[in-house]
């Protein structure tokens, strides 16, 4: 299975990707997680990306496409993968198509989680993420079993630097201007599945697995 979870920041992509990993035993490729790891490691790429991320802007395509090219070439992607937060621009989507075509593979489904902007701010400001495995929780809508401790790996939950009301505005702006046009791109490709992402986490998961079984 070569899958993509798609949607606005805070739509629930990372949350649903965790269930896809469990079911299909394929890796999640989150460009956001890869960039945050590069920042933590203080690499040149991380330091360059940090300013864009802190401002809620997209990191340049050349950097992101380089990351994906290296990641998809790794052995664990041979049995499939879940793209999360990539692509975010038409240029990235076109580069992905070319890359996959060169690898003789294709996308099976794009799962789009539709959530209106009014709900996004509350989701992002209440988000808590695992400092180790990146799992995503919410103080009200999807709390961890133990406060501030990850259900999956027991590491500490933290608030992401870019998860504040200020940055959400520019992130939503970038989503509508640069990323939302990809809905059309993947609909035309015949792989798009649009789901109501406002339902409870477990209902969205059930809808997603129903769509994937068709
Ligand atoms: P994304 O990866 O798309 O940025 P996340 O999966 O991190 O989004 O989800 C954003 C926030 O919303 C998290 O705090 C998460 O726990 C919460 N969340 C995810 N799905 C739902 C849902 N269906 N209903 C309510 N809250 C949700
Ligand atoms: P995310 O973890 O997906 O919410 O991404 C956090 C931030 O990383 C975004 O606001 C962007 O600054 C950057 N980023 C992640 N993925 C991409 C991408 N595919 N293209 C451009 N910027 C990205």
UniProtKB/TrEMBL annotation:
Annotated region (NMP), positions in chain: 30-59
Domain Adenylate kinase active site lid: 127-162
InterPro entries in alphabetical order: Adenyl_kin_sub (IPR006259), Adenylat/UMP-CMP_kin (IPR000850), Adenylat_kinase_CS (IPR033690), Adenylate_kinase_lid-dom (IPR007862), P-loop_NTPase (IPR027417)
Main localization (coarse): cytoplasm
EC code: 2.7.4.3
Binding site for ATP: 10-15, 127, 136-137, 199
Keywords from the UniProt entry: ATP-binding, Cytoplasm, Kinase, Metal-binding, Nucleotide biosynthesis, Nucleotide-binding, Transferase, Zinc
Binding residues annotated for AMP, in chain numbering: 31, 36, 57-59, 85-88, 92, 160, 171
Swiss-Prot/TrEMBL GO biological process terms: AMP salvage
Keyword Zinc: yes
Entry GO CC: cytoplasm
Compartment(s) where it occurs, according to its Swiss-Prot or TrEMBL record: Cytoplasm
SUPFAM superfamilies membership: P-loop containing nucleoside triphosphate hydrolases (SSF52540)
Biological pathway: Purine metabolism; AMP biosynthesis via salvage pathway; AMP from ADP: step 1/1
Pfam families: ADK (PF00406), ADK_lid (PF05191)
Region described as LID: 126-163
Coiled-coil parts of chain: none
NCBIfam families listed in its UniProt record: adk (TIGR01351), PRK00279.1-1 (NF001379), PRK00279.1-2 (NF001380), PRK00279.1-3 (NF001381), PRK14527.1 (NF011100)
Function according to Swiss-Prot or TrEMBL: Catalyzes the reversible transfer of the terminal phosphate group between ATP and AMP. Plays an important role in cellular energy homeostasis and in adenine nucleotide metabolism.
Annotated protein name in UniProt: Adenylate kinase
Record organism: Poseidonibacter ostreae
Upper taxonomic lineage: Bacteria, Pseudomonadati, Campylobacterota, Epsilonproteobacteria, Campylobacterales
């Amino acid at each position: 299975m070569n899958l993509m979870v798609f949607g606005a920041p805070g739509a629930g992509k990372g949350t649903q990707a965790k269930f896809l990993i469990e079911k299909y035993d394929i890796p999640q490729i989150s460009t956001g997680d890869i960039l945050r790891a590069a920042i933590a490691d203080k690499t040149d790429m991380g330091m360059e990306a940090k300013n864009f991320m802190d401002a809620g802007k997209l990191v340049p395509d050349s950097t992101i496409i380089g990351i994906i090219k290296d990641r998809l070439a790794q052995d664990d992607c041979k049995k499939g993968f879940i793209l999360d937060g990539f692509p975010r621009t038409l240029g990235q989507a076109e580069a992905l198509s070319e890359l996959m075509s060169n690898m003789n593979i294709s996308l099976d489904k794009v799962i789009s989680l539709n959530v209106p902007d009014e709900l996004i701010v509350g989701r992002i400001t209440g988000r808590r993420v695992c400092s180790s495995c990146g799992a995503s929780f919410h103080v009200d809508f999807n709390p961890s079993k133990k406060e501030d401790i990850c259900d999956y790996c027991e590491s500490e939950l933290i608030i992401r630097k870019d998860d504040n009301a200020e940055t959400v505005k520019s992130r939503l702006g970038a989503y509508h201007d640069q990323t939302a046009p990809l809905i059309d791109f993947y609909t035309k490709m015949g792989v798009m599945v649009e789901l109501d992402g406002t339902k409870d986490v477990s209902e969205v998961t059930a809808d997603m697995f129903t769509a994937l079984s068709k």
